[in-house]
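Q: How would the structure tokens look for this protein?
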Amino acid sequence: MKSMKMIKRAQRGFTLIELMIVVAIIGILAAVAIPQYQDYTLRAKLANVASAVAPLELAAAEFYQANGVFPAGTDLTSAGVKVIGTKEATFAVAGGATGVITATLNGTSAPLGTGVPTTATITFTAAPSAGDTVLKWAAVPGSFTNTAASNYVTTKLNGS
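A: Here is the predicted structure in token form.
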């Protein structure tokens, strides 16, 4: 008789309060994890844009050191480089005394988060002074209203 009661008791399952506790824990974890994940994906996409701009910066810098001005026109064909966009952005190059590379985020790519229009721009500029031996590019967010994205562009992409 006792062994029969033990078997029935072992087969009962979870109580309602135990299930509610599990659901509450999952809800708390999701509330913390989802914003962190969105921030992580935003930073990853912006870093991808920055890494795609790096070869353009290098080509423009080499052209500047050889000729004293940045390549003219909307691309770097005069510097021997063809400008190709990525999934996240398209690029435009402006020459002259100041180098300007503009990355326009594609509206067809995945949304970059609240406050970041899909057509937002990041402008990479270099304004060397006479006698400079190092060419430093600075990134400035164009139309970002997302504070986290703007801070990431102005600090991380500028090497701070």
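Residues 24 and 30 are 10 Å apart (CA to CA).

The longest helix spans residues 16-67.

Upvote if useful.
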